[in-house]
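Fill-in record for Oxidoreductase.
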Amino acid sequence: MIDSSFLAAVSRLIGPSHLLTEERDVRPLCLDWRGRYQGVPMAVAYPGTRDETAELVTLCARHRVPIVPQGGNTSTCGAATPDVSGRQLVVGLKRLDRVIGVDTANNTMTLEAGMTLAQAQEIARQQRRLFPLSLASEGSCQIGGNLSTNAGGLAVLRYGTMRELTLGLEVVLPDGRRMTALEGLRKNTTGLDLKHWFIGAEGQLGLITAATLKLFALPTAHATALVGLPSSQAAIDWLGGLKDAFGDRLTTFELMTRDCLELVERFKTADVPFMAPVSVLLELSDSGDDSTLNERLVAWLGNRDDMVDGVIAMNESQRAALWNLRETMSETQRLQGASIKHDIAVPSSAIPEFLERAGDALRAEFPGCRIMAFGHAGDGNLHYNISATRADAARLFEDEPRVNEIVYDIVYALSGTLAAEHGIGQLKTHWLERYKDPLQLSLMRSLKRQLDPDNLMNPGKWLSD
């Protein structure tokens, strides 16, 4: 058992009101977002400063107490959930929410890791700048969690993932040492770029406490349209055409199959202007005014002869309605009931083949199954979710291993990945073992052993041996 002197020392360090030990307080914080994992921690600690965080990690290392870093607890794979041993300390960073600095001339901002994504977006906006990461959970997810999962979202097509948006990090290593590299440099050839070790590592190599992030000019013009197309191949053809015509003004290209829109219409979660085999929400952004950009988009659309239907937003309320149709997709599916979810990516050019092959294979083995496919076709990332594999809906997850095998085999045959933006966590560890190149996985685990020989930083996840 853990010596009570440890918790007493934590309480003295961060203050007793910031150390939660009662089950009624910690239990909700240790249930993952999808409700699949319920942890039982020793306690939940909220350090108030970056110095306190480093001291807390040092204290944990001294007492050999494992740490589970936690941001907004929006992980869909159980990455921020402790095990049931009662020996792990959850370290939440919500109190680390300060602005360290904003440099508009350099187009950077440096923030503590506990700031929510929505707060970070607003700080940029106040400086007439854009921080482009955009996710459905942006009101509650935190910058540290976004970094730990290399978050993507709705604007990767133009701006890239969190990895591309990050110039510097501050990280507390498993032994309590603090690596501070928050310089806002875009060129630096003094050796390896160590920040990339920690982005996407899901808190297993260290605890991110601050980051220097890229800012961009705040767009003043948007042109947004929802178009219906005859097939997913037509959608990918449109993607190429839009890139040719508009370059990096093409910010968003979101694909939704007919099944998705039929479900939205059934539950009345958003307005559905038309039905088509495939619908695409696309958006252009630029400087200048909306009317000029809209005119260019209308002219381009007028030269297409393969559009089933379409609407263009002529004002901000119409634009918001089109975005609501896309953003309500996950919640709408939740209303339908449980599903087997996949966060896969293939090259955008392979999306039509993936949809055809996976759909045929799943329906052959699970006749009548329902498939919801939607997501970021501009960067190849699809949320591919399956429900109703059998008449007895309560037994859905008995089919999960076989459903996953079918989907992932096709994904990897098309040079894809089983985790595009949600990470691995606890949920996909055994699948990573099956599909990841063994040498790459071995190298990553060697780094884990080097930095964290006692396996104290988020143990039990995919980097642990």
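KEY FINDING: DSSP finds 16 helices and 18 strands in the chain.
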